[in-house]
Amino acid sequence: MSNLIACSNCWYNALQGGAVGSATGYCVENRTILRRADETTCGRLMRKDLLLQSAICENSFHAKRFGNNASLKLLANGSSAENEVYQTSNLGLVNGDPVVRLVTEYGEYNTKIESLAQLRSTTGPRAELAMLSLARGYTKRCVDSGGAWTSGLHLVWWTRQKLEKEPVPRIQIDDLRYHMPISIERQIELSQWLIMMMRITYITDIAFYAQETGDPISSLADLAEEAAVETGTVSLRKLKAWTKKKALPRIDNALSRKRYGVLSQELHSDV
Amino acid sequence: MVENRKDWKTKRDPLYRGDSAAGVNQPKPSANPSIVRHILYLDGAGRETPYLSMTEDEAVARRFARNDGRVYETTTAKLAKKNVLHVSRKSLLQLLKGKGKGDAQWPSAFEIMQARRYAEEHAEHLADFRKRAADTPDELRQVVSEIFD
To answer: For every one of its 271 residues, what pLDDT tens digit does chain A have, with 9 covering 90 and above?
Structure first.
């Protein structure tokens, strides 16, 4: 299904992920509201549903077809979608919603990590989806610019905290942007599974970035694969049980609370 | 697991496909037969695939047709008549487990799970054109146009 390579499935659109999210998207690269995010794309696409290496690989195919820039294109034929049918910069139309406000302000005042912190403390699956999507882009950009995996230290710690304190994200019918031909209970389960997997995916991103340093957190590079192998199917119950029994002990072994404190202090003393 | 979708019957119910108004995308029978690659839309826009995705649900097809496309309809009888294999949603869900079975074997269990989620969410079926490998492009185009109304 080709909308998997559309803006609606991209890290840089933090307002949509699978069926979760709002009717309109928002691209933090283009800084525009995406009115028809299932129909548009650009050469910077980074897919939410893939692990880091696959997402990078797919981006290279995509950039060849759609250009290595953020110019909005029509997925169907690659022609320009930079008109008001597909996007708008009129942020006055959406500012009432706290998640949308935080996403649209993201990076505007050089305070990306502050926006991510605010999303972290905002209740609801749409805020978490936004934080996890933007966290992937934020960390990749820091690492690509010569930064260390610790640019995502707080983000990975917050993600670990979520896995413990709210293992299954609370999703209500209002959090869904469209409906599927399955029962609403199952649709919500699949959406909860998606967000739980996004948490695990972010942790594996960090582990991948840490591989060259040999830091213990790099041992988590196979965490998402292990989740899939051990649960064997798309089961929320199994994923929740695996998270508690296997994932959290592994994460704590790689990044204990004490070690997080030490690394956090080092990070701040570098600033 | 709560599923509760209405029972789709092979011999009774149609299958839908959302595609361009100009016509249904052309499959490539000799292309990589991985079901995971197909469902996850890997290898980039316009990649070749021996499959065409279909759905039990017209609304899903409409979403994939987008505003300027259209919804096409077929039946498993039409597929069989043209020697095109039907891979049902139930079969897909059985294949997309663990490390994958048959044409759904794939090096990444994570990607198999994502493909399984999409297959379930979209009530997806596949038309498998690999038995039409001897067709010329024109013959294949004709077959596709006769299968989808």
So the answer is: 568 999 999 999 999 999 999 999 999 999 999 999 999 999 999 999 999 999 999 999 999 999 988 899 999 889 999 999 999 998 888 767 899 999 999 988 778 999 999 999 999 999 999 999 999 999 999 999 999 999 999 999 999 999 999 999 999 999 999 999 999 999 999 999 999 999 999 999 999 999 999 999 999 999 999 999 999 999 999 999 999 999 999 999 999 999 999 999 998 876 5
Residues in B 78-117 with any Cβ partner in A closer than 8 A: 97-99, 108-114, 116-117
Q: So what's the ipTM on this one?
A: 0.96
Q: CA-CA distance, A189 to A176, in Å (whole number)? A: 12
Backbone phi, psi, residue A239, to 5°: -65, -40
CB contact under 8 A, A182 and B40: no
Nearest CA in chain B to A224: B110
Min Cα–Cα distance to chain A from B2, Å:
6
Cβ contact B116:A233 at 8 Å? yes
